[in-house]
Amino acid sequence: MKTVASLILAFAAAFAPAAFSQEPPERVGRLAYTQGDVAIYQDPEQGWEKAFVNTPLTTENSLWTDPDARAEMRVSGIALRLDETTQLDISNLDYDDLEAFVAQGSVAVRVRHFHADRRVDLGTPHAGVRLLAVGRYRVDVDPDRNQTVLTVFSGTAALRGPGGEVTLRAGEAARIRGDDLVRERARTTEFDRWTLARDDKWIERNSVRYVSTDMTGYEDLDAYGEWRQVEEYGYVWYPRNVSSDWAPYRHGHWAWVRPWGWTWVAEEPWGYAPYHYGRWIYLDNRWAWYPGPRNTRPVWAPALVAWVGGANFSVGISGGSAPALGWYPLAPWERYEPWYRVNPTYVNRINVVVRDRAPRRFQGRDRDEWRYWNRDRGATVVRRDQFLDRRPVRQAMLPVAPEMIRRAPVAQPTNVLPPAQEFRRPRRDSGSQVAEAPFRRPGERGGPNARPNFERRQQAPGARPSAPQVAQPSQPAQQAPGSPAMRQDARAQERAARDAQQAQQRAAREQERAGREQAQAQERAAREQQRGQAQQQQQAGQQQQAQERAAREQQRGQAQQQQAEQQQRQQQQAQERAAREQAQAQQRAAREQQQAQERAAREQQRGQAQQQQAEQQQRQQQQAQERAAREQAQAQQRAAREQQQAQERAAREQQRAQSQQQQAQRQQQQQQQAQERATREQAQAQQRGQAQQQQAQQQAERAQQQAQERAAREQQRGEPRAERPERERGRDKDDENPGKGKGR
Which DSSP state fits 70? Predict the structure, then answer.
C-alpha cells in the first residue's frame, strides 16, 4: 500500500510544476499575526527564514513557532492558529481546497465561513481530519508519545486513523495512539483561551457588505479604515492614521515568493487585501482603495502595480549614479500585467475590475491626464541593489523630481525586475537584510524539519487511497499434517485472504468516490467554460471598442503630427539657443552638484549611524515591551485567580455565617418556648399549692375545732373513763356525719 501511495504522489508531483506555471492559485493565505520568533519555509534554495506579518502563504509553504511563540494564518473566512513549537506544512491551497499537515505541536482552527463544496483537511503522522461545518477545532500532535488528539468545541469533524473512522461533534474529543482510538470529553487549555481572545477581535461590520469573505484580509478593514461612497466608483475604503504624504506600496519590502516571484509584503497591519486585490485611486487629496464589484470572484495578485524604468534608468548618488527602478499603484482604469507565467483566463479574471474609460471628474482637462494620474502622485523609486536586498522601502526610497518620473517610460515588468538568479546571488554573498534563521535550528530535536516533506499527508476521512494489489502467497512445501509450520501457513493464508477482501472493498469505495469527484469536476469545468465564454464575448466587445478608439486616435494623431512638425522646426531653433544656455548652466550645476553630493555623503553617513543606533534601541525597547506584556498578562492571570479564590472563600464564609445565624435563631425560639412552658407550669404549680394549702388549713381548723369540742364535753360531763370509749365512738360517728347530728 505504501508503494502504491508513493507512486501516486510521485506522479502528481511530476505534473505539479507544469500546473503551477500555467495558472497560479487564485486563493492565497496570509500570515496575519506573530508573537515571538516565527519562521517560514517558502523556497528550498533559501530554507527557513524569519516570518513577517502579511507574508503570503501558498502550496508547499511551512510555518514554525519557537518556544513561547505563536502565529496565526488566515485563508478567506478560516483562521489557523499555531501554539509554541508547532510546525504546519501547507500541502495544497487553491480556491476549493485547503490541505495542511501538522508535523508536531498544536493547531487551533476557527471556521467562520464554510462552503460545502470546498474541503478543509488536516493530516498528522497518525490520522487524517476533515472539518465539516462552521466551528472551533484543535489538533494536537505529540511525536514522542506517537499520538494525535482532535478536539471539537463547536461544529462537526471526521477523524480517520488506523483503527477506523469516527465523527465528532461539539464537546467531544478523540485520541489516536498507535492503533487505538479513544473517545474523550473536550478539554480547554490556556492556548484555547488565547484563541478565544483572538476571536473576540474578529468583528465583521461594514466590510462584508462591500467585499467577499473569500478575499483574504477582509477582516482587518473595519478596524483600520472607513468606507465612503463616491461618484462613479460606489463604496471605496480610506485607511486611517496615515501621514499626509502617505502612498500605497511604500511601507514594506519586496520578497521573492514562488510561484509569482517578486511580491509585496506590507508593514501596515491591514496591508493585505488592499495590496493584493482591487485598485487604488487618488481622490480629494487622499488615497482610496477600490475593491471592485462584490459579486465577482476575487483573484489574488502579488502586487497590483505598474513598473517604471528600464535598462538606462538611473538616479544620481554621491560619487556618480546607480541603476534604479520604480513602481506606482494601478488605477481602476489600468490593466495588470503579470511578470510570471500565466494563461489568458487568469489575466482576464484579475482585470475584471478595470474600467477602460476616463472618469467624469477628468472631463474638460488634458485628455491624457487621467492615464498618468496615479503615476504622477504615487510613484516610488529605489536603487536596484537595495531592491535586491529586500530593504524596507521607506528607508531606501529616493527623492526623485516629478519631471524625472514623467520622462521615465512605463516598462514591461520583465524588462525592469531582477530575475531569480540575480536575487539569489547577493543572498549567498552578503546575506538578507530582513531574513533571519529560526531560534531552533532546523533538523535538531524539538525544532522544525530541515526540509519539509509536502508529500507526506494522511488520507482524510472520505478520501481513501486506491487499494493496492495483494500478491498471492506462494505454495508452501509439504509439511506433516498437524505440524506447527502447517498451522502457521494456514493462518497466514487466512490473513492474506482477509486482507485481499478488505483491499477489494476499499477499492470499490474509492472507485465510487472517484466517480462522484469526477462528476463534480466535470460540473465545475462546465461552469468555468461558460464563464470563460462570457468573458471572451465581453473581451471581444472591448476589443472592438478599442479598435474604434484607436482609429479615431489615429486620425487625430495625423492632424497633430502635421502641427507637431511645424512646432518641431520652431522647437529646433529654440533648442539650439537652449543648448548653449544649458551648457553654461550644466557647468555651474556640475560644480554645485559636486559640492552638494559631498555634503550629502557626510550627512548620509551621520544619518546611517544614527539610524542604526535608533534601530538597536527600538529592538531593545520592543523586547522590553514584549517581556513587560508577558509579565503583565501573567500577573493579571494570577490576580484573577486569587480574586476568584477570595470570592469563593467569602461566599463559603457567608453561607456558613448564614447557616449559623439560622441555627441560633432556631435555638432562641426553642429557648423562648421552653421558658413559656416553665412559666405556665410554675403558675399551675403555684395554683395547685395554694389550693392544697387552703384545703390543709381548712382540715386543720376543723380538726382543732372538733378536738376543742370533745375536750369541752369531757370536761362538762366528768364521766368515768370506762364509759368514755363508748361515748367517744358515738361522737366519732357523729363527727363523721355532722349533718345528721345537727338534723336531730
Answer: E
Answer with the one of 418, 450, 475 that is the final residue of a domain. 418
599 found inside a domain:
no
- Alpha-carbon torsion, ordered 411, 414, 419, 420, to 10 deg: 130
Q: How many residues does the chain have?
A: 744
pLDDT tens digits, 123-166: 999 999 999 999 999 999 999 999 999 999 999 999 999 878 99
Domain count, the chain: 2
CATH code for position 95: 2.60.120.1440
106 and 135 inside one domain: yes
In 267-390, at which residue ranges do the beta strands (DSSP E only) sit?
279-283, 286-290, 305-308, 314-317, 320-329, 380-383
The answer to the question of residue 616 being in a domain is no
pLDDT at 8 over 50: no
Helix/strand/coil for 706: helix
Each residue's pLDDT tens digit, 173-230: 999 998 899 999 999 999 999 999 999 999 899 999 999 999 999 999 999 999 999 9
Clarify whether residues 168 and 221 are in a common domain.
Answer: no
User: Which domain covers residue 368, as residue numbers?
Assistant: 207-418
CB 75 within 8 A of CB 30: yes
Phi, psi (deg, nearest 5) at residue 354: -70, 140
Give the bridge partners for 289, in sequence order. Answer: 237, 280
Which carries the bigger pLDDT value, residue 477 or residue 725? 725
